[in-house]
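Hi V.,

You were right to ask for the full record rather than a summary. Here it is.
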Amino acid sequence: MKRVLILWVLALMVATPISAQVLNNIDEIAPFSEGMAAVRKGSQWGFVNEAGKLVIEFRDDIYVNPKADETKADILGVKYPKFNEGLCLIKNTVEDGVPVYGFIDKTGTVVIKPQFLNIYPFKDGFTTAVLFDKTIKGENEFKLQIFEYKFFDVRVSTSGEITNYFDKRDHIQMTVSRYEIPEIGAKILNKNLVATHNVNLSWTINNLETKK
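Predicted structure:
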């Protein structure tokens, strides 16, 4: 009888989980995307999987915009954190608080460092964006470094490779009081064609195959 009782207790322990992860005090839960849902505590966001397990710890660099215009396809339309082709937007700041954007993967690892002023969602492994580049040009008479800022419309892969540079962009103010998110002047038409917007407001269709 004692042996039967022990076996019954062991069977009950196997059938019933001893403990389960419980996430308390969640302030906001975003819709699932690619098997992950963003959850917010205070000003920080993390991600849970479909089993409810926290798989990306709470952090303060995940991009979110509660006032997003969801009719926009670029940064301005991203209301909630979500995964797109295995990547989620993160945000950092440069130059007097101007935001730049990059991506983490589903492990929370930064796979594309924040370097874009604006970017479209990925599709079939690629997207287009406005790239911010800052290089040291020299020093002034007070031995202070002088920087040169360059901006380009680019095509970028989900691995972070800049595969194509298109037009150089000018007239982007890098002080937060005057800064406006620039429109992206290049958009993917298919895997080989990218349209670029010209200064005369017309479009040029670029065949990437012929440029190799």
